[in-house]
User: Fold these one by one.
Assistant:
Number 1:
Amino acid sequence: MKTTTIRDVAKAAGVHPSTVSRVINGNTNISQDTVNKVLTVIKELNYVPNALARGLKTNKLHTFGMLIPDIANPFFAGLARGVENAANEHGYNVILCNTDYSLEKEITYLRLLEERRVEGLILANAKFQYKSIIELEKRRLPYMLLSRNIKGLQKNSISIDNIAGGFLATQYLIRLGHKKIGHIAGPYNTNATMDRIKGYKKALQYYGISFDKQYLSRGDFKSRGGYHIMNNYLKFDDPPTAIFTANDLLAVGVLEAIKEKGYNVPHDFSIVGFDDIQLASHLSPPLTTIRQPMLDMGYLAIIKLLERIEKQISHENIFLKPELIERKSCSKYQKVK
Amino acid sequence: MKTTTIRDVAKAAGVHPSTVSRVINGNTNISQDTVNKVLTVIKELNYVPNALARGLKTNKLHTFGMLIPDIANPFFAGLARGVENAANEHGYNVILCNTDYSLEKEITYLRLLEERRVEGLILANAKFQYKSIIELEKRRLPYMLLSRNIKGLQKNSISIDNIAGGFLATQYLIRLGHKKIGHIAGPYNTNATMDRIKGYKKALQYYGISFDKQYLSRGDFKSRGGYHIMNNYLKFDDPPTAIFTANDLLAVGVLEAIKEKGYNVPHDFSIVGFDDIQLASHLSPPLTTIRQPMLDMGYLAIIKLLERIEKQISHENIFLKPELIERKSCSKYQKVK
DNA sequence: TTGAAAGCGTTACCAC
DNA sequence: GTGGTAACGCTTTCAA
């Protein structure tokens, strides 16, 4: 069974194919009569334009590609949702690719997306390096890095200001009177982790608290890690009275370790997380945390990508403001334990 | 700047374009010499085939469309992940569309996907009705309904066996000695809700417990709803001693209401949820729940879709087995309260 | 084993 | 306002 084409419509309407094309594309220089006639036939024949043919001709399929490690991770799901919202509003579709933190997968997907002639790329994947970006630029394939910064590249990225986020969290705890503040960081090979540490140190310094390196630990963004590190803190002669974790999952583990030992949050320890995933508000106690505006970040990424495409402009790195969400996992520092 | 085409490669390699095409497509009837020559040139020129042109010619762009209400919902994210895994393994890409439970959006997206000539559709969206399916069949666009059944349609769907799920949850509570078992259901306009209720009733009947309709409540799949309904139960002269909720979020609200009144889970009340979202294992107490195998469901949907495409077969509705995940929100019925 | 030619379904440019 | 024609980049059939 052949699908109906623009030619079938033309024949049935008694006009030339190019006229049908003009009608479809909303060209104005056509008599109302012809427009009506063509439109009627289109409906009658149930004609659906072939976007591939159009794409081949115009070099525009109105499709973006998005690379993320894993859509099942709520953080990336939020980004993806923001991206899709903005793309859809502008008539674009997005092909989503899960790379599982594998460089190989990233490269395979990228190739696939190039073959498909996507008009732009949102890169929220993990392993991508500087030279891959150079490759993209050589091919003139517009991209935006999302929640991702690449060393040596000072443009076309959108992420939150992680330094500000770290500062915000730490400052909040300091203002509650805490002086012994632990920070459980993420893996050290990401900018996000390092910046959050910077913010943490900056706040300490700003408020005249000296940095104690035994209070800084390297975690893995998973609850298990938070659990072990907190247990370790609890063995200290002088454990921290407040903990800032580099993400919410770490805070989950911290909470577990504290409860297990019979202590209470926020009475005995104050906790601040990072991300504000759905989980955070449902923990007991509900977790005070630094919110990343995932939807906004994704949305903005597309807006900027479109600007790049339409006006050929490059953008400096953009940093969105993090926000402190105050819930019930922190309290004023209590002298007596 | 023109992109390099198959013709450029041909010229540079001193062969005919059709020969290049044959090399790209792994045609065997070519001398090793020519293959090598062409491959070298392809690399030199950095040639990337145009999938649109190929798709136009072959009518196969190897792309699927997937309609879901909201990727930010962990349940759908799980499905999407499974779908993408399977699609990718078979050389397909997937265009993801968030419909926000809006029929209008569903229709708009569907049209877009048709124009793009996707080869198949995964429908996990909400509003779609029988007549839209008929429309798809008329257009010979293969589809699979995912976690979604449509009245009157006895084929091409994959979901879990919700009756079995409801039965499993209720049976578990009964075996713990509970006799007064409440069920907080979802919205009544979905098959999933109705089937879980059926399973609940079936278990009661099977174990000789008479159904008491005051113990069955209609919820909304949100924690707020669970909270209010549980508060209502607590006002009963004879409140249920165990609650089975139609999803995990409802259980979150139930837990809150119970704690607020100073009761303890699992000591005073036993709770079983449904879905097993990430949240479930991190609640306190960790929630016993019925797991839906999201990844498997998504994966299988693509496998079956491919079968339909390649072998033109229709499938009966497929029901996957739910699984009870035992955590710490249930205990044996205690006589004295 | 390779070349030639036609055509997939559009759009865009040039006539009239 | 509308028609004609060529071309987008590829695959496929036929012929050699």
Number 2:
Amino acid sequence: MKQQHSASDTAYEKIRDAIFEEKYERGEKLTEVKLADELGVSRTPVRDAMRKLEEEGLIKDKRVINPTIKDLMNTFDVRMLLEGFAVRQAARYMGPNQIEGLQRCVETAKQGTTEEIMEANKEFHDIIVSASNNDVLIDTIERMQSVIFLFRRTVVYHQRPRLIEEHEAILEAIRNHEEDKAEALMKSHLKKDLDFSIHSW
Amino acid sequence: MKQQHSASDTAYEKIRDAIFEEKYERGEKLTEVKLADELGVSRTPVRDAMRKLEEEGLIKDKRVINPTIKDLMNTFDVRMLLEGFAVRQAARYMGPNQIEGLQRCVETAKQGTTEEIMEANKEFHDIIVSASNNDVLIDTIERMQSVIFLFRRTVVYHQRPRLIEEHEAILEAIRNHEEDKAEALMKSHLKKDLDFSIHSW
DNA sequence: TTTATATTTATTGTATACATTAAATGGTTA
DNA sequence: TAACCATTTAATGTATACAATAAATATAAA
């Protein structure tokens, strides 16, 4: 049942994480042979991995991307549209158990460890996104995560002020089925995220 | 300067077109060896091509996709969000020469051949999308085209009523910098597209 | 018959060799 | 020196062989 992941998968993860950890510099050219040697596999799985990373936008033309502020703004503009839509669906259709899930995320974010807090806040958004019940939308947002993660220095981001309060406000709007309010709150929330990411850059 | 395309590229195009022409049935399993034989190449470029087709959503789990109405609706919901945003930017920032381009699309659509009309209407949307000046948005819409095309029976779609008039109205709103109106018109335009595609299914 | 377990077959995953193309180097001439 | 071409080197594209896995078929026991 539990399929161990293939050489391609591990290659993908390792290269991705290496990029996140800045083991490879922004703009650095990645060659198949070099990566294959480092990972101890042949070029084939490395090629697979690189193609996947190109899809996500972490690699472009065989080079580690070096996103600009504009790239981040573009990503967030799309994200605001999609998550704005998703949160409307959430406000309309979410049942008590799903709302409960959001509530738990907020609680964890109030008292967990740094790691747990980051995780819970991510989960909060994931739950709302999946409430859209739209696979195209879900996949699109998923694909953008890597670039967002690459841009955001997690150490600093953890201290982003008022984040939990904003989540709470969004949750409250969902609970009260206030679509317009939920959308507006989500958009301004993401806007603040963007601004914080830019200014702590 | 002009790079001839590789075996991977031609494999991609041939398989994609074969899917469009329903040479391969919906849901049919595509195996690498079979395709490689048919195309007269090795498995390697076929794998590349299949991976690209999976990205686009034309293949899923090695099978030709068989999109449902819900899939189409999901795609259009996202498209409405993104093109709605794009047309706002168009209304705000488009210069006379770009507007001229849109005008030409409308003209061609009024008197060209079937082929030209289809092309011009596609171009109309492309120009607006690119006016968003947002690569993330542009790429996202681009990726959705294959599924839309697969779903739309072009023969029938050519007769979609009032399409040109709707484009004209959108163009007029852009010309007058009426953002809200442009967005509303674009969304209802796409909604009619969706409905037409569903009903002519 | 049905279920379960081997055994075979088909398909995909991976490594590697070779072909082709692109990049880099070095030398020659204006 | 700078610009050009030739030659080498590196990198990617493609084919193919072999390995591992998944699917299908056959065989045996309940």
